[in-house]
Amino acid sequence: MSNTSRRAWLMQAAALGLGAGFVSPRLASAATLEPSWPMDLGPFYPVEKPLESDADLTRLDGHAKRAQGQVVELTGRILAHDGTPVPRAKIEIWQANSFGRYHHHGDGHDTIQPDPDFQGYALQEADDQGRFRFLTVKPGAYPAGSFMRSPHVHFDVQGRYTRLVTQMYYPNEPLLGQDKVLKHDLFGHTNPMPANIFGALTPGGSTLEPGAALCRFDIVLGDG
């Protein structure tokens, strides 16, 4: 399957909600859900968007090579606080490559390897059930002054009434406890850290690609 055809299939799968990865334990009859944590936009939001912004960040048109790193199928739902889905929410994600470098002119980490085959940013509209799906790689950690940023993915979500900027962190990472940006965003709520900032990672669990990981991350927008 060509790169273009595969990305088109991925986007169609996301729109239709195909695959077991979209089965959500959060039903509309559930108790009120805690809204996701608002977090800083950060310095690496791509004000100048890349030429490609589809749901497959691991392949670029005209590139023979694929993005380096552990491939991750990133899925979830956009929900209101009562557990009902937020249809057609606009979802932007951006992240560092597997080495820890952003595709952004403001990333001055010249000693960190760039990856010209990694898209770095994607834009998707959730389906009628609030579901989304991306194919990406696990981001690398990177230095931020005197400390290291733990692997994370940035989200900017626009629902019907609510916009939320947040970040998803990978669980059980050794750098979580010393990430000062994360501590700032959590206003000291770090012992323990809130469960809803973490993706649920299943190694080898991807429904799109054999051997790839599955990472589930639901986002709660409050009023939706």
TrEMBL record:
Name this polypeptide is given: Intradiol ring-cleavage dioxygenases domain-containing protein
Keyword Oxidoreductase on entry: yes
One Pfam family matching this protein: Dioxygenase_C
Residue ranges constituting the Intradiol ring-cleavage dioxygenases domain according to the UniProt record: 74-102
Keyword presence, Magnesium: no
Keywords, ordered alphabetically: Dioxygenase, Oxidoreductase, Signal
One example GO MF annotation: protocatechuate 3,4-dioxygenase activity
Database matches in InterPro entries: 3_4-PCD, Intradiol_dOase_C, Intradiol_dOase_core, Intradiol_RC_Dioxygenase, TAT_signal
Leader peptide range in chain numbering: 1-30
Organism of provenance: Phenylobacterium montanum
Family: Belongs to the intradiol ring-cleavage dioxygenase family.
